[in-house]
Specification:
about 200 residues; alpha+beta; 4-stranded antiparallel β-sheet; two-stranded antiparallel ribbon; 8 helices; elongated
Length: about 200
């Protein structure tokens, strides 16, 4: 079956607010420019950047699907996940109070294998799928509903691709994604140009 799932409904985030913040990329670029152009410590500290945040979120969504596809499609998930589409509707909330960056993707899954696996295994907290369903805020779910399938995926997928391994792979891509989608603000760019002119 094919089912379109928002990434917030699965354990694999693309959160740029509290997790993939790009701080290391900013530091790396500032250190590089300081070395290249002989910036003082104060000049380096004062460098400011403009970010193309929609592009950053889009690139994290693409990287997320790449990691998930490599780690879950086919034999990697025991034939449960057959395919994951490219991400669509990558977006950020206006406010980060109760939500975060996300994207939609269409998952092609073997529903029979998914539910069979969910019913026979426990998650990392030692819960059965039934206990897990009772513990999440979605409440009672019709077994024929898409919510039930998404809950089963949320329960089962970390068995095949644990969240920490996913996050480690995303952290590896973080600096590149930011560096490709950031540029110096006007005043900082003028400083670099003035240093170039003196070189």
């Amino acid at each position: 079956m094919n089912i379109t799932i928002n990434s917030r409904d699965l354990p694999y985030t693309i959160d740029t607010y509290g997790m993939f913040t790009g701080d290391s990329a900013e530091e790396m670029e500032a250190e590089y420019l300081a070395e290249q152009y002989g910036l003082t410590e104060a000049e380096q500290f004062e460098l400011e950047w403009d970010y193309n945040h929609p592009a950053i979120v889009r690139d994290f969504a693409l990287e997320s699907v790449n990691i998930l596809a490599n780690g879950l499609e086919g034999k990697s998930s025991g034939g449960i996940v057959l395919a994951i589409s490219l991400p669509e509707n990558a977006r950020s909330p206006q406010f980060y109070n109760y939500t975060t960056d996300s994207y939609d993707a269409t998952w092609t899954i073997d529903k029979h294998k998914l539910l069979k696996f969910a019913d026979k295994h426990k998650n990392g907290e030692g819960q059965t799928f039934r206990e897990y369903r009772q513990s999440i805020s979605w409440g009672d779910m019709d077994e024929a509903s898409e919510d039930y399938i998404v809950a089963a995926l949320d329960f089962v997928l970390p068995y095949f691709l644990d969240v920490e391994s996913y996050e480690d792979a995303m952290f590896e891509a973080e600096s590149t994604i930011y560096i490709e989608n950031m540029k110096l603000e006007a005043v900082s760019q003028q400083l670099i140009e003035s240093k170039e002119a003196k070189a």
